[in-house]
Amino acid sequence: MSTERLLDEDIWSDDSEEEEDNRWRDSRLRIVKRETEVDANQTLLPNGMVNISSVNVTNSSNVRFGPTIVNVTHSENTETVRGFPHSLVFVFKITTTTERISIYFVLLLFTFCISIGIYYNIVVATSYENLDPSPHEWNITRKMWMARDVNNSKPVMMEPLRPVVIQHSVTHECHTFIQCAAAMLEIQKTFITNEHQDTPYNFFIGNDGRVYEGRGWGLQGSHSDQFDPCAVSIGFIGDYREEIKGYTAVSDKQLDTTLKLLQYGVDVGHLHPDYVVFGAKDYKSSASPGSNLYNAIQKWDHYDHKHQYSNLICEQIQFLKNKDELQNGTLEWYVTRNMWGAEPFGGFDSALEYEPLRLVFIQNTGIDGCWDFDACSLTLRTLQASYNHEGENLPYNFIIGKDGRVYESRGWHTDGGRSGPYGLCSISIGFFGEYSNSEYDAHVKTAQINKLGLILEDGVRQGHVDPTYVVVTARDMLAENSPGVSLYNAIQNLQHYSLKYQNMTCDKIYSSHENT
């Protein structure tokens, strides 16, 4: 049998202290009396402690249990003491102050984390998906994406430009203005830190279908030594290699925006109406712009399907008048006077009376060879300045560099100036270098011999050279030591090499040919 302690309306409110003590004693006596009626099997609490299982109190909030006044309220059978649930009061009784502070901190941290999670997963995510506060529908300037000022870009060679080079950034995708602006800032930061220069491309295409201005119009990119001075470079944000897992797939919106950008370039004069598009992989060993994007740009009308431009240099493209000049492929290896920066000079002796020419005169220049366009162009300008100082012009009709290109010197229709009495009936071709054993690299390059054949074929096609032309050297006709041994041996192996015109004048060469 349970023991229930009832304090029947023992409400101590505002009585005097003495009356309150008397009531306490009377109450205690009643409790002790009731304890004697407890079942014998029930164990009493030690030290006279009283176990109160329930207390019913009406019309009072402050009740005195022994020497302590306790605030008690009753609500749906749940007791609260001093405003705390009974379960928490129990926790407070069995824990120390330090433990309670730790519990407070854990509960606070848990609540904070839940709130942050809700905010970013619901509020922020919804904002990114539904709110894209772009400052322009499709054309985002540097100011709009808050680009840093970097003033180390060079101006392009000459506008309007023809080549448009497409690449990809190999970075994470971005599908909103906020994401793409952040991506642009990260790309710029990387290049400033590692390369000490601005973003590599003139323009970027975001996955949101917008154009993000990189270096912009009129400035060189830094994506290719070959085309930096004369091309517009466009980088698509993402990695479009279908060979990798999770590759970026180009969207119609991105492609349409790119074509809109290119048309704008044509309209304002930055791009030539006959501009040509190709990928980075078309002119160098690269996977860019990725197979997915590469397949897409090949469907454009302006794509260079014949790969006529990818082997050219900017100087050749700069002076290209129209696409018809590319049909015979000569611009891949032929460099005009304008291209290498020749100064104008007149007074050439005409060779028109002997065209088509039957004699091809080969020599070496006697100066160091050159291995690329810039070096060969500089050598030609220096050599021309030296001859002009003496009142003469640069000799030879054409000069072949060790880079495998033919450089126009005096060109067709003129005396080459180095063939002696054969100047009016021969084409004079010089090879950069000495081709002697003392030269660092005396070997003749296969590309040089091939280009000799190409320039002669072009001369035959244009009517400047007779199809039955004969190749000779200054060593054969003028008793000179030119060309050097290695070049001389190479010339002797040519199909058109012959000494049948040796010791003959121009008139005899042509009269003998008429008699045969």
From TrEMBL:
<feature type="region of interest" description="Disordered">
    <location>
        <begin position="1"/>
        <end position="20"/>
    </location>
</feature>
<dbReference type="InterPro" id="IPR036505">
    <property type="entry name" value="Amidase/PGRP_sf"/>
</dbReference>
<keyword id="KW-1133">Transmembrane helix</keyword>
<dbReference type="InterPro" id="IPR006619">
    <property type="entry name" value="PGRP_domain_met/bac"/>
</dbReference>
<dbReference type="GO" id="GO:0009253">
    <property type="term" value="P:peptidoglycan catabolic process"/>
</dbReference>
<keyword id="KW-0391">Immunity</keyword>
<dbReference type="GO" id="GO:0008270">
    <property type="term" value="F:zinc ion binding"/>
</dbReference>
<protein>
    <recommendedName>
        <fullName>Peptidoglycan recognition protein family domain-containing protein</fullName>
    </recommendedName>
</protein>
<comment type="similarity">
    <text>Belongs to the N-acetylmuramoyl-L-alanine amidase 2 family.</text>
</comment>
<dbReference type="InterPro" id="IPR015510">
    <property type="entry name" value="PGRP"/>
</dbReference>
<feature type="domain" description="Peptidoglycan recognition protein family">
    <location>
        <begin position="140"/>
        <end position="284"/>
    </location>
</feature>
<keyword id="KW-0812">Transmembrane</keyword>
<feature type="compositionally biased region" description="Acidic residues">
    <location>
        <begin position="9"/>
        <end position="20"/>
    </location>
</feature>
<dbReference type="GO" id="GO:0008745">
    <property type="term" value="F:N-acetylmuramoyl-L-alanine amidase activity"/>
</dbReference>
<keyword id="KW-0472">Membrane</keyword>
<keyword id="KW-0399">Innate immunity</keyword>
<feature type="domain" description="N-acetylmuramoyl-L-alanine amidase">
    <location>
        <begin position="149"/>
        <end position="290"/>
    </location>
</feature>
<feature type="domain" description="Peptidoglycan recognition protein family">
    <location>
        <begin position="335"/>
        <end position="478"/>
    </location>
</feature>
<dbReference type="InterPro" id="IPR002502">
    <property type="entry name" value="Amidase_domain"/>
</dbReference>
<feature type="transmembrane region" description="Helical">
    <location>
        <begin position="101"/>
        <end position="120"/>
    </location>
</feature>
<dbReference type="GO" id="GO:0045087">
    <property type="term" value="P:innate immune response"/>
</dbReference>
<dbReference type="Pfam" id="PF01510">
    <property type="entry name" value="Amidase_2"/>
</dbReference>
